Amino acid sequence: MKALLVLEDGAKFEAEAFGARGTRTGEVVFNTSITGYQEILTDPSYHRQIVVMTQPHIGNYGCNEEDDESARAWVAGFVVRSASRVASSWRATLTLEDYLKSRGVVALTEVDTRALVRHIRDRGAMRAAISSETDDYEHLLGLARNALDMNGLDLAREVTCAELYHWAPTYEIRDTQYISRIPYHVVAYDFGIKRNILRRLAARGCQVTVVPARTGADEILALRPDGVILSNGPGDPAAVTYAIENVKQLLGKVPLFGICLGHQILGLALGGTTYKLKFGHRGGNQPVKVNGHVEISSHNHGFAVQAEGLPSGVEVSHVNLNDGCVEGLRVPALKAFSVQYHPEASPGPHDSEGLFDEFVGMIVENG
């Protein structure tokens, strides 16, 4: 069945339908990961985004029930060059197409993704409409131009959990000097949290309490946490004003570790500013310079913290080697640090997993 992707600037890309049938709108972005499509589909940070994969062949190892990073698929749409119709892996329980259909994800295949990604790189991420049920160009162009703009959009409130819940430590605890017989209690703000963040904490002996995005600082402190995680999530960080205010009240009172959106929220709480990147960083191969060496890291963000204007005492600890943007902050006096990227990966390399050890070490030092 014929399908169509139309961008707000009028560009169109013909395709074949794949996955669920329907019409969706969202910001069109691209991801350079070679594997990990299931984790990408279920990452809440992609809420209201149409994801284009630069790897041409997608779906060959199928999908399963274990690799989801949240309870549902969040992408607004999924675009690939060549979708595999079969799954060749002992772990697969269903094909990618069946997975997409079961989760209501509208997808396109046989798209010239090379041309599409070059267009996004030149013009920037933009709104788009995707359809596997109509090829009416003018209709889809109108939908794209009337879609929500990511600037000023608070999406954390749309993806966060409805109520507090607990994530218990796993018995498959890794060998680390920070493991304690009594688990450290970590409270994690859910701005769109990925499950592998919880797994990485649990693997270090942490008892994790996950709370909704709007939970007040006084409520957090009442839970008597040993440390607080500011999670990843979608949307414009400057629009998540309630979280910024809560983090301001937590600074200096408990160790804080921000990841992705959590990094941006920490930067804003410290008095910095954020801005929208032209086309963002999304993929599992981004080089980041830290402490004189380079780590290859997993990214998914469209906004960044502005280096200029950060107050004294705030150190820019990590820098992206592709464009020089801020990738990490350190505030030793306030027991807080953050990274723009994803040390929990899923998908991506594990170069930065030691940041979870650093967080637990900070908890130990804090007593």
Architecture overview:
This protein is of the alpha/beta class. It has two domains: about 1-145, Glucose Oxidase, domain 1; about 155-365, Rossmann fold. It is built from ten helices and 19 strands. The strands form three sheets. A ten-stranded mixed beta sheet has the order 10-12-11-13-14-19-18-17-15-16, with helices on both faces. Strands 1-2-8-6-4-3-9 form a seven-stranded mixed β-barrel. Helix 8 packs across helix 9 (about 260-270). The longest helix is centred in the last third of the chain and has 13 residues, at about 355-365. About 50% of the residues are buried.
Characteristics:
32% strand; 367 residues; alpha/beta; 7-stranded mixed barrel; 10 helices; globular; 22% helix; Rossmann fold; 10-stranded mixed sheet
- Terminal CA distance reads 62 Å
Could you say what the CATH architecture of the largest domain is? 3-Layer(aba) Sandwich
- Total separate domains: 2
Structural class: alpha/beta
Could you give the order of strands across the largest sheet? 10-12-11-13-14-19-18-17-15-16
Share in β-strands: 25-35%
The beta-strand count equals: 19
What is the global morphology? globular
Report the uncertain regions. Answer: 171-175
Overall pLDDT level: 95
CATH topology of the largest domain: Rossmann fold
Give the fraction of residues assigned to helices. 10-25%
Major β-sheet annotation:
10 strands, mixed
Estimated radius of gyration = 20 Å
The CATH C-level class name of the largest domain:
Alpha Beta
- The CATH superfamily of the largest domain bears the name Class I glutamine amidotransferase (GATase) domain
**Count the helices. How many?**
10
Write down the secondary-structure element order. Answer: EEEHEEEEHEHEHHEEHEHEHEHEEEEEH
